[in-house]
Write a structure and sequence with these properties.
The protein is mainly alpha-helical. It has two domains: 5-360, no CATH class; 365-479, no CATH class. Helices cover 66% and strands 5% of the residues. The chain has helices at 5-33, 41-52, 71-82, 87-112, 116-125, 130-133, 140-155, 159-172, 177-191, 193-218, 225-232, 241-253, 259-275, 280-296, 306-329, 333-360, 365-379, 392-398, 414-418, 423-434, 453-458, and strands spanning 386-388, 402-404, 438-441, 459-465, 474-479. Strands 2-1-3-5-4 form a five-stranded mixed sheet. α2 (41-52) packs parallel to α18 (392-398). 49% of the residues are buried.
C-alpha cells in the first residue's frame, strides 16, 4: 500500500531541501569564517609546504618527527601548496565543504533507517554547530565527514566502500580506528561474517602499508603529539579532557536556546538502544570517543570535542524522531511536526547567535604570529633557528627551524611536564639545550627574558610587533649563546 500523497510530497520536498541547505550552510560558513583559524593546524600546513618544496615530509628539515596528528590531510594539502595557494584558506574551504558533506551523511542515515525526522533534524543542525565551526582549519570536520559516510556505506551493505572511507579517516586521524571497530561490528550484525571479514581485510590492507611507511620514516606510526598532549596534562592548573567535556555540556544545558538538545538526547539514547537504526552508531561513537579521550588523559583542547558533540546531536535527532512518532501514533501528526520543528529551529537560532559571537572574537594571535613569521623569513638566514611557545603560525610563515617549548616538535621536552615542570621550565630547558638563534615571545603573558638575568645577557630585542589589542608588542630577540 502506498504512502499518503502528503507524506510522499513532504519527503520529496526534503530530498531537495536538505542538499540545498547543506550547500547553502557550507557556503555561508566559508564566507563568514574564511579567515578564521588557530595555531595548531599550521603545524600540519608546514608539513604540506615542506613536502611541496622538496624538503621532505617533515616539520623541521632533516628531522623525521611526526608532529602532525593528520598525516593524510597534510599529504592532501601538499598539491595546493605546490600550486602556491594559501593553505589556511584552502583548509577552511575543505572544512566548510566537509560540514555540508557531514549533514548529507546524517540525512542519508536517517533515510536508510526510515527515520526521516531524525535525519532532517541532524542535517539541519550539524553544519552550523559552533563546536565544529570553531575547528575550521584543522582536519576535524573532514575526518568526521569521512566517519559519517563510512557508517552510511556500512549500513547500506557496501563493506569495501566502508573500508576505503574508514581507512582514509584513520590516516587523517588515528582515532578513527574506534569508528572502524563500530563499523565492523555493524556489518557483522547486519550482513554476517563474510562481509565483516571483507571489511576488516580491506581496511587493514589500506592502513597497514601507510603505518609501516610511517614506522620506517618516523620510527613510529603514531604522532608524537599524543605523548606531548598527555604530558601537558601534568602541568599544574591544566584542565583534563573529561573536565573540559563537563564544562561544554554544562554550557549546552544552561543555554537559553539549546534546551532541546538536553531534553531530546536521553530520548534518543533510548531510541538508539531499542531500534538500533543507522544513526545509533553515530551516537555510540561520540560516547565511546569521549570515554577513550578521557582514559588517555589528554588536556582539554577544544578541537578534541567534535565527535562527542556530534554524538550528542545524533542522540537529540533520534529523540526528535521518537517524540514525533509518539505523538503521530496518537493522531496528532501536525502537532508533532510543529513541535519538533520549533525545537529544532530554537537550537538553530541559538547556534546562529553563538556563531555571531564567535565571529566577533577571532583569534588575535593569527595576525601577530603571522607578522612575526614573515619578519623572520625576510630578515634572518634560512638556517636560523627560532624558539617559541606556540609554533604553528610562526613556523609556517617563517619556514625556519623551530624549537618548540610545548614539546610538539621536540617531544623529549615532555619529560619536563611529567616531572611537574611548567611551560617556563620547559622553555628554559629548550633554550639551554637547543640554543635557538632567535626567540619569539609575548613577554607580558609569558615572561622569559625579563624574568631571567642570563637571558637578558644572551638575547637582545631586534623587533617588536605592536597590536592595539595587546598591552605590549610581540617581541623578537636575537640570541648569542656563550
Amino acid at each position: 500500500m502506498g504512502q499518503p500523497v502528503s507524506a510522499t510530497g513532504s519527503r520529496d520536498l526534503l530530498r531537495l531541501a536538505v542538499p540545498a541547505w547543506a550547500i547553502l550552510a557550507a557556503a555561508g560558513v566559508f564566507l563568514v569564517f574564511r579567515d578564521a583559524g588557530f595555531d595548531d593546524p599550521y603545524i600540519t600546513y608546514r608539513y604540506a609546504a615542506n613536502l611541496a618544496d622538496g624538503l621532505g615530509f617533515v616539520y623541521n628539515p632533516g628531522e623525521r618527527v611526526l608532529s602532525t596528528t593528520a598525516p593524510l590531510y597534510a599529504l592532501a594539502l601538499a598539491p595546493f601548496a605546490a600550486a602556491g595557494l594559501p593553505l589556511p584558506l584552502v583548509s577552511n574551504l575543505l572544512g566548510s565543504l566537509s560540514l555540508g558533506a557531514g549533514a548529507l551523511a546524517l540525512w542519508r542515515l536517517g533515510q536508510l533507517g526510515e527515520q526521516p525526522v531524525a535525519g532532517a533534524v541532524a542535517a539541519l543542525l550539524y553544519p552550523l554547530a559552533p563546536a565544529l565551526v570553531v575547528t575550521l582549519g584543522a582536519e576535524t570536520t573532514p575526518f568526521i565527514a569521512l566517519v559519517l559516510w563510512s557508517f552510511v556505506a556500512a549500513w547500506a551493505g557496501r563493506p569495501l566502500v566502508a573500508a576505503l572511507v574508514l581507512a582514509c579517516a584513520t590516516l587523517v586521524r588515528a582515532d578513527a580506528a574506534l569508528a572502524a571497530v563500530l563499523a565492523g561490528l555493524l556489518i557483522l550484525a547486519r550482513q554476517g561474517r563474510r562481509p565483516a571479514l571483507t571489511f576488516g581485510a580491506g581496511a587493514a590492507l589500506l592502513i597497514a602499508p601507510a603505518a609501516l611507511a610511517a614506522w620506517w620514516y618516523f620510527g613510529t606510526p603514531l604522532p608524537v603529539t599524543l605523548g606531548a598532549k598527555r604530558s601537558q596534562a601534568f602541568i599544574s592548573g591544566s584542565l583534563s579532557y573529561a573536565q573540559g567535556l563537563g564544562v561544554r555540556l554544562w554550557s549546552i544545558a544552561t543555554g537559553p536556546l539549546s534546551w532541546p538538545l538536553v531534553a531530546l538526547a536521553p530520548l534518543g539514547a533510548a531510541e538508539a538502544a531499542l531500534r538500533r537504526g543507522p544513526l545509533a552508531p553515530v551516537a555510540l561513537w561520540g560516547f565511546l570517543h569521549a570515554l577513550a579521550y578521557s582514559a588517555l588523559g589528554v588536556t582539554a583542547y577544544f578541537w578534541y570535542y567534535g565527535p562527542a558533540l556530534v554524538g550528542l546531536l545524533a542522540a537529540a535527532a533520534l529523540g526528535a524522531q521518537l517524540l514525533y512518532a509518539w505523538l503521530a501514533r496518537r493522531g496528532w501528526p501536525r502537532i508533532a511536526l510543529a513541535l519538533v520543528t520549533v525545537m529544532a529551529l530554537a537550537v538553530l537560532v541559538g547556534q546562529v547567535g553563538d556563531l555571531r559571537a564567535l565571529k566577533a572574537r577571532p583569534d588575535m594571535r593569527l595576525g601577530l604570529y603571522g607578522a612575526a613569521g614573515t619578519w623572520l623569513r625576510q630578515n634572518t638566514a634560512r638556517d636560523a633557528s627560532v624558539g617559541a611557545l606556540e609554533v604553528g603560525v610562526v613556523g609556517y610563515y617563517s619556514r625556519r627551524p623551530i624549537v618548540d617549548f610545548a614539546g610538539l616538535v621536540q617531544p623529549e621536552l615532555g619529560r619536563v611536564f611529567r616531572e611537574g615542570g611548567s611551560y617556563a621550565d620547559a622553555a628554559l630547558v629548550a633554550l639551554s639545550r637547543y640554543r635557538p638563534d632567535y626567540l619569539v615571545n609575548q613577554e607580558y603573558v609569558f615572561p622569559l627574558v625579563r624574568a631571567n638575568a642570563a637571558l637578558q645577557t644572551s638575547c637582545v630585542e631586534v623587533a617588536s610587533l605592536p597590536d592595539p589589542r595587546y598591552p605590549e608588542p610581540l617581541r623578537i630577540f636575537r640570541c648569542t649563546w656563550p
